[in-house]
Every structure is written in structure tokens, then in C-alpha cells.
């Protein structure tokens, strides 16, 4: 695997995730010190989906991020381009729809979903801006986008410590608990190369979404961005108001 930049080979990234699929969720829990569970809960709250609505969960991997929607009666589609990940997820949760698909060329019709979400996957897409446009295409007018991704810590001294952890401690830990520790060197580098919160917000708005806000988690290690597709649906105003209020409780100009 070549060192991470914003230019990625989909075949290499796909093979990497196929390889780490069996222990992926366990390793993530260890490396995040259990914080990934809290982050995912916040994503579900930001999406604000209701029973009967349709949610597309991109880069869903083994479906860990999809399970809360299914458990709440939301029709969730777990989409990922790693067949290895999807196979692990389908064995665990046969009740969830797992679909193989590329985020830059989604296998869904226009305006299919009430919400689209992607957690810790956008930075692994070969063309993130194209993927954001594809997400807008398959979302209904008034629908919601929620992106959860690693970002840039806002406190400079902490940012230095965090970078040291990424580049040194994370691969060392992964070597003891992962079947493919080299993959986590790539993941660390992909996090370091990823744009900051404001730049990602600009990408989202340039892709056709509006009212983008973000919330920093764990000091900016992770950021959750939320935006809305222009237009309205009958069910949209009340749901959008609840989700937006959730974001505004913790916001700056762009934050929610």
C-alpha cells in the first residue's frame, strides 16, 4: 500500500479493508479507547431519522453504524465497496440490507433516501467531492447529510500530541491486535492528510448541500458535519428542526 494522500487507488483501499474485516470493529474500539461508540451515537442523533424513513449508510463496513437505525425501525441500507466487510456484517445482522457500491457511482435512483450518512469513510474515497455530489443526487429534497470523519484538533498543543499518537503509537498498537498492521499506518497517514473542518464544510456546500454546520468531538479529533439538500418534503420541517436544534446547542458559525 502506497503512503496516503488525497489521491487513492480504490482497488488498494478495497483490498485493505477486505483483509482487516474480521477484526475491524474490535481494533477500532481499542484504538479509539472506546470513543467510537459515543461518536456513532451522536451521528444517529444528528441524522434524526424516524421509523419508516430510508437512510443510506455509506462506508458502512460490517454494519456497526447501521444497526441503531435498523433497531429503531428505520429502513437502512448499509453500503460499502469492501465485500469482505459486507460479508462479516451480513452474517451478524441478516436483517439489514447490505449492498456493494462505490460512493462515487452509487447504485441507487435519484431522490431515494431521506438521509445519507458516512462515518470514517469519506477520506478513503478516491474523489470525495464527487461522492458528496452523488450523495446529494440520491437524497430527497429536504433530506439530510451527516458526515462523521477524523479531523484537526482545535488546541495546538493537543494537536501535536495527537499527531505523535497517530504516527507512532497507533501503528504499534495495531501491530499487536490487527492481522494487517500496515493498513493502520495507511489509516494514520490518511487522517493526517485529511482537510480541516472548514474546508470539508466548503466541499459539502460546493457539492450542492446547504446550511452546513459541524460539531467537534473529542477536541476536534473527530468532526460531525450536517447539511440539508435544498427543497422540502412533507415530513421534512419537523425532523430538520429537531436535528438542527441538536446541532445548534454546540455551535459556532459553522458548528452545530
From TrEMBL:
Catalytic reaction equation(s): a 2-demethylmenaquinol + S-adenosyl-L-methionine = a menaquinol + S-adenosyl-L-homocysteine + H(+)
Single biological process term from Gene Ontology: methylation
Class of this enzyme: transferase
Superkingdom of the organism of origin: Bacteria
Keyword list, A-Z: Menaquinone biosynthesis, Methyltransferase, S-adenosyl-L-methionine, Transferase
Pfam families per UniProt: Ubie_methyltran
Binding, S-adenosyl-L-methionine: 62, 80, 102-103, 119
One of the record's GO molecular function terms: demethylmenaquinone methyltransferase activity
Metabolic or biological pathway, per its Swiss-Prot or TrEMBL entry: Quinol/quinone metabolism; menaquinone biosynthesis; menaquinol from 1,4-dihydroxy-2-naphthoate: step 2/2
Keyword Lipid biosynthesis on entry: no
PROSITE patterns cross-referenced by the UniProt entry: SAM_MT_UBIE, UBIE_2
Assigned EC number: 2.1.1.163
HAMAP family per record: MenG_UbiE_methyltr
Summary of the function given for this chain in its UniProt record: Methyltransferase required for the conversion of demethylmenaquinol (DMKH2) to menaquinol (MKH2).
Record-stated family: Belongs to the class I-like SAM-binding methyltransferase superfamily. MenG/UbiE family.
Protein name per the record: Demethylmenaquinone methyltransferase
Organism for this UniProt entry: Zhihengliuella halotolerans
Gene name of the record: menG
Amino acid at each position: 500500500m502506497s503512503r496516503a494522500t488525497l489521491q487513492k487507488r480504490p482497488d488498494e483501499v478495497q483490498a485493505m479493508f477486505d483483509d482487516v474485516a474480521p477484526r475491524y470493529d474490535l481494533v477500532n474500539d481499542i484504538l479509539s479507547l472506546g470513543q467510537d461508540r459515543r461518536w456513532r451515537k451522536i451521528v444517529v442523533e444528528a441524522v434524526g431519522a424516524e421509523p419508516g424513513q430510508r437512510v443510506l449508510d455509506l462506508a458502512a463496513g460490517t454494519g456497526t453504524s447501521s444497526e441503531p437505525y435498523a433497531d429503531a425501525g428505520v429502513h437502512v441500507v448499509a453500503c460499502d465497496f469492501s465485500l469482505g466487510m459486507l460479508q462479516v456484517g451480513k452474517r451478524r445482522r441478516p436483517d439489514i440490507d447490505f449492498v456493494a457500491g462505490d460512493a462515487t457511482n452509487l447504485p441507487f435512483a435519484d431522490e431515494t433516501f431521506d438521509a445519507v450518512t458516512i462515518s470514517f469513510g469519506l477520506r478513503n474515497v478516491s474523489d470525495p467531492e464527487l461522492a458528496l455530489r452523488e450523495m446529494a443526487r440520491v437524497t430527497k429534497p429536504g433530506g439530510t447529510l451527516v458526515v462523521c470523519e477524523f479531523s484537526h484538533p482545535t488546541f495546538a498543543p493537543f494537536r501535536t500530541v495527537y499527531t505523535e499518537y497517530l504516527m507512532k503509537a497507533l501503528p504499534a498498537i495495531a501491530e499487536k491486535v490487527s492481522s494487517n498492521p500496515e493498513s493502520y499506518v495507511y489509516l494514520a497517514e490518511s487522517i493526517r492528510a485529511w482537510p480541516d473542518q472548514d474546508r470539508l464544510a466548503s466541499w459539502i456546500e460546493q457539492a450542492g448541500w446547504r446550511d452546513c454546520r459541524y460539531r467537534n468531538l473529542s477536541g476536534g479529533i473527530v468532526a460531525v458535519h450536517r447539511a440539508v439538500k435544498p427543497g422540502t418534503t412533507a415530513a421534512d420541517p419537523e425532523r430538520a428542526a429537531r436535528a438542527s436544534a441538536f446541532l445548534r446547542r454546540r455551535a459556532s458559525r459553522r458548528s452545530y
